[in-house]
């Protein structure tokens, strides 16, 4: 079932999400619904607060198959950085250049509640950081000091890019 993606200024997007105590049937169903919503958007990442659930859950699909991370936590970040133009499914029409660490190590649980570690670099590292930020009430625009660098894009440009995080 597709879920409604919440837009700013909805206050849930600025709250710190709560940890998930147990990966159960409700979480499995939410993961499936979030992946369906992500694919329909289209986007590459979605955090539970974006669909009205203030819990620590993200789903990602950068074209290599969808996966979920429950209670994700960034354990290591590289000193080296990279820049990507980021957009957000909760801020449609806005894009900005964000500088983030180029590599991260993320720990959490998979959809079955098993411990996982993800060592990511490049685009996947950016997507993980963007989605984990959502769990802490941080939006991509918060990383951009010069707000004049945030730009509006047309619906056509958004559809062409198809990489909204």
Describe it for me?
There is one protein chain. The chain has helices at 25-40, 122-135, 155-161, and strands at residues 45-47, 57-60, 67-77, 81-87, 94-101, 103-109, 115-121, 151-152. By secondary structure, it is α+β, with helices and mostly antiparallel strands. It contains 3 helices and 8 strands, in the order αβββββββαβα. The mean pLDDT is 94. The protein is globular. Strands 1-2-3-6-7 form a 5-stranded antiparallel beta sheet. Strands 4-5-8 form a 3-stranded antiparallel beta sheet. The chain starts with 24 loop residues before the first helix and ends with a helix. The protein has a single domain (11-161), classed as Peptide deformylase (Peptide Deformylase).
Radius of gyration: 15 Å
Low-confidence runs: none
CATH topology term: Peptide Deformylase
> What kind of sheet is the major sheet?
5 strands, antiparallel
- Which strand-content bin applies to the residues? 25-35%
What's the arrangement of secondary structure elements?
Blueprint: H1 25-40, E1 45-47, E2 57-60, E3 67-77, E4 81-87, E5 94-101, E6 103-109, E7 115-121, H2 122-135, E8 151-152, H3 155-161
Antiparallel strand pairs: 1-2, 2-3, 3-6, 4-5, 5-8, 6-7
């Amino acid at each position: 079932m597709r879920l409604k993606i919440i837009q700013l200024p909805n206050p849930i997007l600025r709250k710190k999400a709560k940890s998930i105590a147990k990966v159960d049937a409700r979480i499995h169903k939410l993961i499936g619904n979030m992946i369906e919503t992500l694919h329909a958007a289209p986007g590459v990442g979605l955090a539970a607060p974006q669909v009205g659930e203030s819990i620590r859950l993200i789903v990602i699909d950068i074209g290599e198959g969808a996966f979920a991370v429950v209670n994700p936590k960034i354990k290591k970040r590289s000193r080296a950085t990279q820049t990507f133009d980021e957009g957000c499914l909760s801020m449609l029409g806005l894009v900005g250049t964000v500088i983030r660490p180029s590599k991260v190590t993320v720990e959490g649980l998979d959809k079955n509640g098993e411990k996982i570690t993800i060592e990511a670099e490049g685009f996947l590292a950016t997507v993980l950081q963007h989605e984990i930020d959502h769990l802490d009430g941080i939006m991509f625009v918060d990383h951009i000091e010069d707000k004049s660098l945030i730009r509006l894009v047309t619906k056509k440009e958004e559809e062409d890019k198809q990489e909204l995080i």
